[in-house]
């Protein structure tokens, strides 16, 4: 099953994604035999999975990326979306969005199946054949119990239920009548004996079966007796030891079971399953928020923690936040003025870093691009801006570069700042009169 995510960004951009497994922070490497590995900046080109812009989304700027097959869906992975500035992925590229992959929500866990829930009609037509083939393909077993094969008289094992007595002994030496042996010729010189059973019924099948039942019952008892049974005193002593041990165990049960019960009594009737998210009530969320805001600054003393940093700001020990170079925030302040008197459109741009105006020495090649919001056509294409002072720039548009009344436009500023090419958030502009 393929898995993809959709992101929105400036149309025509070159974007790629990097997948980080959340459980251990390792990154997916697509080269060779793809696998997760520890981050190595030199391998960034092998980490990149390209995003594709959807056809017909030039205005919306919709991009999609498919998760590699090896990333899977049983564990959560973070998806970092990066804008490629040069000809190939580089560690200096800018992060523009993010998302995540995770376990699919449509999985089904079946606790039990009711009796007769699966009928013969629900099985595949060849299910019986496949099961039977698997049974007969199993290693040969020996049937050791007499009850394993039960055959009623006259059924089963075809060919053994229709053998006549005369077929066992040739020339009619044994004869039957009503299913019983009525005559046996022992030797040629003896007469036929028609009553081999005796007249006292001592050896009838019924009496023999009854005697066997009694003997079998006696044997079941005697088989359990030792070859040298213990004396009655030995048995009494053993029972005394057993009774003492049982009393000790009973004491343990009274105390240990009570302790266990004290714990289990605190468990909810339906505990959450592994991996379930914790759901708090509105009151619980309010209580937690109140406790956080009511925490005393004197208790926020762990160096490097967010709480300590906030406490220092509040108490005046730290006057400002210090960002690392990877956390710097860049912003372009753009304004648009239509000058009807001189028939020009004027653009003014100021570049800001971490809330302060940049110096001109840190900025090179600032350009301005203006696109129509109706059809994404280019009105002004990457024109170089004129410097005013420090990080302030301007551009004056005339004639065919002027905006058309009633059409919205997107103004995009691109500049190399601190050695990195940066595309600033677009500015929306338009004219409502000539």
List keywords for this structure.
alpha+beta; Immunoglobulin-like; 5-stranded antiparallel beta sheet; about 20% helix; elongated
Overview of this protein structure:
- The structure is a single chain.
- With 434 residues, the protein is α+β, with helices and mostly antiparallel strands.
- Among the domains are: 4-101, no CATH class; 297-324, no CATH class; 328-430, Immunoglobulin-like (Sandwich), CATH 2.60.40.10.
- The chain has seven helices and 21 strands.
- The strands form six sheets. Strands 12, 13, 14, 17 and 18 form a five-stranded antiparallel sheet that branches. Strands 15, 16, 19, 20 and 21 form a five-stranded antiparallel sheet that branches. The chain has a four-stranded antiparallel sheet with strand order 5-2-8-9, with no helix packed on it.
- 10% of the residues are buried.
- Residues 105-109 have low confidence and may be disordered.
């Amino acid at each position: 099953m393929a898995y993809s995510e959709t992101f929105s960004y400036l149309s025509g951009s070159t974007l790629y994604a990097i997948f980080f497994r959340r459980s251990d922070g390792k990154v997916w490497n697509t080269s060779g035999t793809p696998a997760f590995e520890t981050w190595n900046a030199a391998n960034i080109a092998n980490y990149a999975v390209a995003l594709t812009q959807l056809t017909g989304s030039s205005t919306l700027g919709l991009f999609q990326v498919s998760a590699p097959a090896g990333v899977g869906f049983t564990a959560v992975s973070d998806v970092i979306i990066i804008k490629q500035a040069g000809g190939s992925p580089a560690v200096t590229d800018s992060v523009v969005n993010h998302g995540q992959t995770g376990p699919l929500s449509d999985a089904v866990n079946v606790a039990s199946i009711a009796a007769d829930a699966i009928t013969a009609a629900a099985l595949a037509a060849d299910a019986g054949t496949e099961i039977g083939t698997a049974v007969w393909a199993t290693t040969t077993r020996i049937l050791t119990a007499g009850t394993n094969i039960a055959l009623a008289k006259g059924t089963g094992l075809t060919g053994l239920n229709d053998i006549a007595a005369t077929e066992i002994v040739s020339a009619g030496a044994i004869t039957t009548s009503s299913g019983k042996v009525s005559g046996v010729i022992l030797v040629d010189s003896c007469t036929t004996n028609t009553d081999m059973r005796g007249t006292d019924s001592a050896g009838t099948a019924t009496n023999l079966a009854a005697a066997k039942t009694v003997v079998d019952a006696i044997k079941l008892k005697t088989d359990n007796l030792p070859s040298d049974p213990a004396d009655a005193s030995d048995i009494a002593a053993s029972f005394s030891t057993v009774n003492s041990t049982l009393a000790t165990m009973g004491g343990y049960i009274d105390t240990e079971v009570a302790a266990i019960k004290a714990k289990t009594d605190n468990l909810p009737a339906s505990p959450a399953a592994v991996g379930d998210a914790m759901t708090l009530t509105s009151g619980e969320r309010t209580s937690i928020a109140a406790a956080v805001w009511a925490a005393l600054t004197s208790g926020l003393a762990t160096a490097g923690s967010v709480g300590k940093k906030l406490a220092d700001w509040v108490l005046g020990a730290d006057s400002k936040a210090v960002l690392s170079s990877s956390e710097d925030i860049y912003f372009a302040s753009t304004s648009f003025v239509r000058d009807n008197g001189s028939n020009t459109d004027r653009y003014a741009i100021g570049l800001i870093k971490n809330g302060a105006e940049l110096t001109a020495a840190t900025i090179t090649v600032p350009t301005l691009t203006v696109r129509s919001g109706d059809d994404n056509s280019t009105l002004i294409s990457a024109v170089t801006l004129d410097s005013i002072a420090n990080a302030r720039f301007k551009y004056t548009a005339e004639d065919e570069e002027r905006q058309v009344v009633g059409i919205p436009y997107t103004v995009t500023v691109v500049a190399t700042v601190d050695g990195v090419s940066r595309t600033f958030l677009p500015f929306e502009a338009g004219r409502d009169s000539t």
